[in-house]
Amino acid sequence: MSTTSKLAAGAVAAAVGVTALTACGGGSGDGADRGGKDGGAKDKTVTLVAHDSFTASDEVLKQFTAKTGYTVEVLKSGDAGEAVNKAVLTKGAPQGDVFFGVDNTLLSRALDHDVFEPYEAKGLDRVRPGVRLDADKHRVTPVDYGDICVNYDKKYFADKKLAPPQTLDDLAKPAYKDLLVVENPERSSPGLGFLLGTVAAYGDADGGWQGYWKKLKDNGVKVVDSWEIAYNQEFSGSSGGKQAKAERPLVVSYASSPPAEVLYSDPQPSEAPTGVSTGTCFRQIEFAGLLKGAGNPDGGKALIDFLIGKEFQEDVPLNMFVHPVAEDAELPELFTKHGVVIDEPLTMAPDKIAANRDQWIQSWSSLVLQ
């Protein structure tokens, strides 16, 4: 997730700041020994280029190796925005075979630069139709989705005997003055997703989203550069925030952050310490694609098939704290007990994002940061 995330944020393992490298096999990671026509062991390594929040269990990657004979090497390339930019700059001579982590807020940038080789993944019929944003050309394959939402500190609002905000409109009310921290959309995928959500909700007419952000600014919204700072240093409801004596009980994060808080607490509480303002959510979808010029395209195709397979899809929730896209994947109890289902998230077509994203970010910066 999303600068990612969910991620972004998507996403996500980022929902608790986890960015540990998880891969089978070794290698230098520079792509020099990938695949090729020389045969031998090199043909049995497939390199996955991903944003820093990609995480998978060792066991599931071993299952891929046992199933296909290929060993996965994971090359992390920064946050989602940085990773996409690197993929664009290395187009035709990529650092790996498959790219994971481009989301719907950045998808047009990768597609417009022709980074991916079309490939229709096996098992795509099991993927929910609503996330297939490139269904006609198959340049990318959806792998997971999550919802960027405002989270709140339950204890703070209980102690204050104040109802937590549930909608975007609520956030601008005087009762919530100086309580919200958000991420800069120019630097952060969750921040960008939240901005796009406000554009989707309020539009451009009659002040629209800009008028809304003026209200947030007047109501004391705080802006920081990253999700890590916002969630783990500024948000009073997170374990990191408690240690930092954070003072803001509202933060832009993910609908899946409460299960993450439970999982990483010691001891684990019976109830998540944080909640989700369900009327503030923007849907983030993450994709994988076969990179043009891949040294091991056969291995890359096998890996994409595996990413939407049941084994990997059921591994996704507790590693990256996002939802699987496969309709037959079962959610773990932690997600069903502590997670929140967003039935009607805010959304926006990728072509509209592509046409306006940079302008919206520039306008937001001029309005909010000055």
Task: Outline the secondary-structure elements.
Elements: E1 6-7, E2 45-50, H1 58-68, E3 71-76, H2 80-89, E4 98-103, H3 107-112, E5 116-117, E6 141-153, H4 154-160, H5 168-171, E7 180-183, H6 189-202, H7 208-218, E8 222-224, H8 227-234, H9 239-243, E9 250-254, H10 257-263, E10 274-291, H11 297-307, H12 310-315, H13 317-320, E11 323-324, H14 333-338, H15 350-368
Parallel strand pairs: 2-3, 2-4, 7-8, 7-9
Antiparallel strand pairs: 4-10, 5-10, 6-9, 6-10, 6-11
Plain-language structure description:
It is a single chain. The chain has 370 residues and is an alpha/beta fold. Helix content is 35%, strand content 18%. Strands 2, 3, 4, 5, 6, 7, 8, 9, 10 and 11 form a ten-stranded mixed sheet that branches. Helix 6 packs across helix 7 and helix 7 runs parallel beside helix 15 (350-368). The longest helix has 19 residues, at 350-368. It is globular.
The average pLDDT score comes to 88
| Secondary structure: number of strands | 11
Share in helix: 25-40%
Please work out how many helical segments DSSP would assign.
Answer: 15
Shape: globular
Low-confidence stretches: 1-38
Report the sheet-strand fraction: 15-25%
The CA-CA distance between the termini, in Å, is 27 Å
Overall radius of gyration: 20 Å
How are helices and strands ordered from N to C? EEHEHEHEEHHEHHEHHEHEHHHEHH
Largest sheet: 10 strands, mixed
Give me the secondary-structure category. alpha/beta
